[in-house]
Amino acid sequence: MKERGYSIKDLEVLSGIKAHTIRIWEKRYELLVPQRTDTNIRYYTDDDLRRMLNISLLVRIGYKISKVAKWDEEKINEKVLEIAKRRTSDSDYIDRLILHMVNFDNRSFYYLTNEIIESLGFEDAVTKVFFEFFVRVGTYWQVGSIFPAQEHYVTNIFRQKMIAEIDKLGMSDNNRATILFFLPENELHEMSLLFYSYLSLKMGYHVIYLGQFVPWNDLEKIQRQVKIDFVFTAFINSIPKEDLESYLVDLKELFSSQKVFITGWQLHMHEPALPRNVKIVKDYKEFKKFMR
After folding, report:
1. Among 68, 80, 81, which residue's Cα sits nearest to residue 30?
2. Which of 70, 164, 189, 234 would give a disulfide with 264, using CB separation of 3.0 to 4.6 Å?
3. Three-state SS for 190?
4. What is the dihedral sign for C-alpha 273, 277, 278, 281?
5. CA dist., res. 148 & res. 100, Å (int)
6. Whole-structure pTM value
7. What domains can be seen in the chain, in order of their start residue?
8. pLDDT tens digits for range 152-197
9. If we measure between CA atoms, which residue out of 151, 140, 150, 148 comes closest to residue 10?
């Protein structure tokens, strides 16, 4: 497989170490030796990126760069593994997840997610680590520092974990209200939707989960055939403000007697006008407070 090249900006974004600092470390400690293209443009290899991620982790927890720079790869990896075995902060967990993602280290990524869930509990693992991880991944993707395959494979692991936790809860036997969860057409990012459905099940609500890319006709059929008390959807993918506001009006008319919850980055971007029965969910704590 052909190795991709990283710019110094990529290293800065992924490691959290400023490009200026990386250049100083290169000159002072020969920490990295960038390659050059035929047109004399500097670039870094996958090995360089892995080294930079490991070093940034060590420096962040207190090791001196002058000391770390003298270590060979075996020693650096040994120290990183020692850190992995100790109690770590949420930020350390995120750094390690990023490192495993970049390396396509499927096994380490999988076991680290298990470790985080076991240490923090599922709800805190999602809200304190996994969601923050995806915020960083989204930033990296926007600036081109990671490519879609990396995002897709880690998203699939988290999705499996989320579904497994939902399955553990089972179906509610009480007579609490029914919440319909779905994503509009052209919307595929369902991590937040899965988590809010998990919270709803945990609180004892009856959940109908339609998932991604739901056609409008299907919503109309559900509305005619099933008693729905609440509706929940999300807007993550780019959408023009006028299209978003038009969709919200259509939702209000279709589910005129239900409360409609909405979340997602596009709401922050556009600050759309909201129909009377539509409420933006800012975070999971607000949602839990309202539903209790």
Report:
1. 68
2. 234
3. coil
4. positive
5. 15
6. 0.71
7. 1-83 (1.10.1660.10), 87-169 (1.10.1240.10), 170-291 (3.40.50.280)
8. 888 889 999 999 999 998 876 666 899 999 999 988 888 899 999 9
9. 140
